[in-house]
Known about the structure:
heterodimer, A: mainly alpha, Helix Hairpins, B: mainly alpha, two-stranded antiparallel sheet, 2 strands
Amino acid sequence: METVTTAIRIIPLEHYIILCAALFSIGVAGVLFRRNTIIILMCIELMLNSVNLLLTAFSAYHSDPAGQVFVFFIMVVAAAEVAVGLAILVMMKRNINSVDINLLNRLKW
Amino acid sequence: MVNPATLAYYSWFVPLFPLAGFLVNSLFSRFLKGGRAGYIASLSVGISFLYSLILFFIVRDNHQFAYTLKLFSFIQTAGFSIPFEFLIDSLSVTMMLIVTGVGLLIHVYSIGYMKEDERFNEFFAQMNLFTFSMLLLVMGANYLILFIGWEGVGLCSYLLIGFWYKQADYNLAARKAFVMNRIGDLGFILGIFLLFFTFGTLSFHEIFSKLEGVSSGTLTISLITLFLLIGALGKSAQIPLYTWLPDAMAGPTPISALIHAATMVTAGVYMIARSSALYVLAPFTMTLIVIIGLATALLAAVIALYQNDIKKVLAYSTVSQLGYMFLALGLGAFSSAVFHLTTHAFFKALLFLAAGSVIHALHGEQDIRKMGGLKSFLPYTYWVFLAGTLAISGIPPFSGFFSKDEILVQAWTANPLLYILALSGALLTCFYMFRLLFLTFSGENRWKPFTASPHESPAVMVIPLVLLAVLSFAGGFVNIPELFGGSASFNRLLAPALAVASGHHSLSHHTEWTLLLISLLLLAGSIALGWIIFVKMSRVPGPDGLIRPWYNRIVFKKFYVDEAYHYFFVRPYEYLSSTLFENLERNVINRIVNFTGNLAFEAGAVIRRLQNGNISFYAFVMVAGILFFFILNLIIT
Lengths: 109, 637
């Protein structure tokens, strides 16, 4: 265990932060600008996992396992979310024969 | 022997039962079939009557009995408190007996009279509410409770006068009664405000106990009494607010009896009698009451001479008799006024119910020109109507004689001129009542072409009539004056509850006998005159369209009072309303309101574009918002 944290600490913390910020931004941009619902789900996963990465990095640097515990929680929630999201996706495909998010705009006055 | 205070404590039973009857009859109306509502209503009033009777005996046997029953705190704030309280004393018990007793007979009578009506249950519910309101009015121990009853009576009279609401003009009559009463109520409520402002309380005995040191004729007392008087004028149908009462004949006949005899119109007289301690301190107001009362008594009596509707004649006679009560009040003879109120309740209820019986027999015909010769067809009705007529005319030993004679004697002691005017009013009363009696029951049958054979009313209607006839005959014996060896026990009973006006001196028996003899001779003369004109010569009033000499026409048209009111008050008011409607309402208020509405509408149309249903757009806005605050935070720190 000790070797893993030492290995993580070889790379400076700033690099992790920049990487995670970049990944998160890619995720946000994907959610905002893509129309394919599958891609949007994947982008959400990307955002979640970028945060996971950052949490583990901080955990290692601060020698605090709490951060890694959080990561497991997030993974569980993400898995559940993906299951629900994919189910919605299947229903969407069956009903409107498309996965274009912009077709779902009926919820307005 | 039960403690009197304990029995008086349960006096809240008295208004409770009519209220319960009202609730049952109105809420469970759909389950009450075949006249059950009538029995419930009559039973509830009957129980109240029995309890009132118990209370009456308590008050009679305990001199100066006055019990204030505080039920709960009605209005309680920092500055003042007004409890919901009842006052049981001789005056309120007398009124309770009249309201429940005469009311009970009218309820029973109505079971027969309203049998065919499709809104039978509602009728009895409203009757019970009326009785309840009136009981609240007479039992209240402060002006606020009195006012609640006062308004309740006004509301019920509106409902019941307009009971047959499908006829448009009946609704107008109901509305007229309501509006006229409202004018009076405004005065009354101003009086209450002023009372509270002056004395800091509305309770009767607290106000009256604070009056000890007040000198007579102060401006405040005069103003208070004048305002209260306006209320009484509206409720008791005196000049200038009397025109609603004859129109109130639109309601079913038992209602006319209830309004005219037991309740409603007596409220004004009761209120002034109750406030007698205030009124004796206001000589100006008292003089005004004398003038108004006498003028009303004479005016209404003259109008009644030319009326051809059986109920209209009785209506004007009520106005006229109320004028006598006001005359007595103004002369400071408060107990005489209440005594006349009592006997009047008996004989006027009798007359109205008997008139109802006639109308019932003739299938709704009310025009006395289309009656005549009904004596043999309606024997009971004829005899009781005769009893009522003798009573209202003041023929001894009927009740009206004792009460009216007392007022006439009071008038003589104040001023012989008042006596002469009051006596001429009494003669007119006698004449038009016998005119009514003769035209209805004697002479030829004039109803033949109009209606099928008349029939006597059922027992449920006749029995109350007979009971009322007995009361009309014997009601005066409770107050036989000293002149006839009596002890004026009614006056002595009421004395503790009423104030005494100063400067009263009794007449010598010699003068009283002379006055009595003169008035009786004149009364006999007017009956004879009526008999000659309407029986011997069998004159019948001409049709409405007949061209009459001017003096005759003025009376026939009721002195054009309604027309004058229409011209001076209704028309300007309508003009003002329509002008305001055209200009202010349409051009100003409408525009402001429409502008406000349109503003919201337009703003909504703009903001609506934000909600386009596009989820990427929502997410974009959300992220943009987060970024905005993020950058804002960076800039600030």
